[in-house]
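re: ur question from yesterday

yeah so i grabbed the chain u mentioned. its 199 aa long if i counted rite. heres the sequnce exactly as i have it in my notes:
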Amino acid sequence: MNSVWRKEDLKALSALALASICGIDEAGRGPLAGPVCAAAVILPENFPLETLNDSKVLSRAKREKAYRLITEKALDWAIAWASWEEIGALNILNASLLAMKRAYGALSLRPETVLADGNRPPDLGRPCLALIGGDALHPSIMAASILAKVARDSMMLRLDAVQPEYGFCRHKGYPTREHREAIKKYGPSLWERPGFTVS
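ran it thru and got these structure tokens back, copy pasting raw so excuse formatting
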């Protein structure tokens, strides 16, 4: 059964081996443009946990260093996407859950416990705990948040190379003033999410 956990529930997870837990998180729920990315990670017991944190509070250099460590040392990991067209068709919440499901489905291992960041777990066909604020609370979710963030930022750099006038290399598709002004000047980019509004 899926359930929602909070910070005060973490003690119940502390007895579990790190290698028995899969962490899942997404990046890109807030932008006006580009896909949403999700990652699933299973860390080994000896992973250097001091390199991990919520991806949003790490510098770019620290995120990229952690990304390399995770992809080199994780017992298993996967990155998956939901496109801007799927976001328009499903809404951003459901598209995010779909990307999470795809990331988990791409793993080779099936650990004992699955933790997803947020207050609504993806439907994986098996029990999955949603941990509110999990990307700042549990190392497995931190690792997933880092993979998803770095992968999505890299994708937005590639999109920037195609349409540099929108400034994706700087704002990564988020609704900054620069992004909104570019949409007003040039019209929607190729990757704007359906239903966006510009004010």
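noticed a couple things. The chain has a mean pLDDT of 94. also The chain has one domain: 3-186.
anyway ttyl
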